[in-house]
Amino acid sequence: MSARPRVSVTLSGFSRLFGSSLAGLIEAARVADAAGIDQLAMTDHVVMGERRDRYPYGRFPFGADEPWPEPLTTLAALAGATARVRLATAVLIAPLRPPVLLAKTLATLDALSGGRLDVGVGTGWQREEFDAAGLPFEGRFERMLDGLRACRVLWSGEPVSFASPTVSFERVSCLPRPVQPGGPPLWLGASLRSERVVDAISELGSGWMPIAASSEELSDGIARLRGAFRAAGRDPAALGVRAAAPIVRTADGSPDLDRTLAGFADLRERGATVASFALAAWVREPSGVRAFLEGLGRAARAA
Predict the structure, then answer these.
(1) How far apart are CA 18 and CA 150, in angstroms?
(2) Is residue 248 part of a domain?
(3) Domain for residue 216, yes or no?
């Protein structure tokens, strides 16, 4: 096990940091790749409704004019511009996408990137997104699990059949196959308030992405998941956990990278394997993107 969690940067703050052109994302990915950042992650909203006050995890951090690039399309572009950094969704609203098409897209992206894809999924919180897509908001968790099970079957590359309450098919094959054996790792972004989330991660997941969890909730959640892994016959040490690095600020309110990185030991002790940094929380101006990524890479390697 590594001495520190791997470092993941969530690409965000597009309107402020990249303006009307998303071409800057490509250069940011190249910088992150060269700097030694372990993972780049994209968030997901297909459409954005007006009721951002319904966001269940506190104040929604972006305005109505914030663009939300489609994450799998964007990661495909980043795959072609990078060589080693892993590419992730954190999170992809999986129930908005037909499972067979999702399996094809993820497998293609994994193949194009040389096996560098991590798939973080969630159910979303906006009813408006599901209404606009003509899909029911209710039952989205069960549809997501059925879809992920279907993806796993399709990723074998062989003619396969699958039957569930929400998706079924007979004797079809889906090629290309992913490069990673069994397909890209699946991570679930959710709170553990429901036991069904614990069950889903122990069945299908490589990891957990806690949302707005306190230190105590992080520790307790990891303990519960390790127990569930053990009960399912899986190695508890194989559980991955992607947790936000708690930001330590200076007297004037600016984020302090060195002091934040000093908290890596606590994250690792609690069981986190990936520390995530939201780009928009650390960088205020476009000119600061390169400096932050290069500084984070240097500091993380030294931590």
Answers:
(1) 37
(2) no
(3) yes
CA 23, 7, 145, 148 dihedral sign is: positive
- How many domains is the chain built from? 1
Cβ proximity of 100 and 174 under 8 Å: yes
Confidence category of residue 1, pLDDT binned at 50, 70, 90? very low
pTM: 0.96
pLDDT at 262: 87
Question: Could you say which DSSP state residue 240 is in?
Answer: E
Side chain identity at residue 110, one-letter code: D
DSSP-derived 3-state class of residue 102: helix
Question: What range does the domain containing 194 cover?
Answer: 11-23+36-240
From the number of C-beta atoms within 10 Å of its C-beta (0-12, 13-18, 19+), residue 142 rates as middle
Residue 296 lies in a domain: no
29: part of which helix (H) or strand (E)? helix 23-35
Q: By mean pLDDT, which of 29-38, 55-64, 75-84, 161-170 is the weakest?
A: 55-64
CATH at residue 50: 3.20.20.30
- As a whole number, mean pLDDT of residues 188-205 equals 95
Separation between Cα atoms, residue 70 and residue 208, nearest integer Å: 22
CB atoms within 10 A of CB 97: 21
3-state secondary structure 121-138: EECCCCHHHHHHCCCCCC
Four-point Cα dihedral 69, 95, 82, 108, nearest 10: -120
Token couple for 59:
């104040």
